[in-house]
Write a structure and sequence with these properties.
Layout lengths: L5 H18 L13 H24 L2 H42 L3 H9 L5 H25 L7 H22 L6 H34 L1
Helix pairs in contact: 1-2, 1-5, 2-3, 2-6, 2-7, 3-4, 3-7, 5-6, 6-7
Amino acid sequence: METLRKPFFYAAFIVLFLALLIELSTGIIDFEVPGLGIPSIALIDSLLVFVIGMMLLNILISPALVGKISGISTLIFSLVILITSTMLLMYSLTELTAMLALLLAVPFGTAVYFTLFAPFARAEAAMVLSLLILLKVVFAILLVMSNPRFLENKGLVFLIFTVLLVNILVGFLHGFPPGFLVSITDALAAIIVALTGLIWSLNLLIRSLPAILKIF
């Protein structure tokens, strides 16, 4: 990338990585990220961080060396995301089923549901989601500023679009129901994001196979 403006590219990577750290609740914000929906977004963001990170390695070290390790590293990373997405999907389905069963088990199950799950920090979640969307928009702008030709990479553009879309989806599922149902729609959001992670990780895994076959 002879025309790459490296400071903008480095800044784009840092901003994106910061968003990932927030989703993983690493202490950058002074409270725990509520629910399952927001942390689940880290699955999709991890894929984008990996893709941009491989581009960054192409700049920092020998492209020939990166070419040798890209296939196997992509395979391993995609398998990790695939397994994590599957585990999140199963856990979120279990949580959703349990919450629905309690809510519908009038009167005692409903009472338990309202005690354990009806309270949801919707305002805090909305604040975190707003910050995440801002960071990702800034990332996209910085990436294009580093080299407008990134817009020609349809796979990358679609992945960035997916990253933004899942943020909006989680925000919508937090925002539209009555407050006592947000825990349920939050689990639903995590299920949708986990399925999205499965699709993208499978795509990444399949795309890694030709590079691995070249090694042998």
